[in-house]
Design goal:
The chain contains 3 helices and no strands. Helix 1 runs antiparallel to helix 3.
């Protein structure tokens, strides 16, 4: 995989400060930090849990990914209504 992951380098700040661009920048930053926080984890790391009743790392990654997806969909829907 020679192509960089979009969140591997982060993104540039936008010129306009509207709600959708602020949310997009927030998600970019979250993805950037998430990429580097999980880069290089082993199978043992992915199955780690701090205690019973807590999500393992791979479940937490899926949860965060779902939240990012949900916010992205909502922000795009709001952006279309503003136009």
């Amino acid at each position: 995989m020679d192509e960089p992951v979009p969140t591997e380098e982060g993104s540039n700040a936008r010129e306009e400060y509207i709600a959708s661009s602020i949310i997009t920048r927030l998600l970019d930053g979250l993805g950037f930090r998430f990429y580097w926080a999980t880069e290089g984890l082993s199978e043992v790391d992915y199955s780690f849990t701090p205690g019973s009743g807590c999500r393992i790392i791979v479940e937490l990654m899926g949860h965060i990914g779902g939240l990012i997806n949900w916010v992205t969909i909502i922000s795009h829907r709001e952006n279309k209504q503003e136009a």
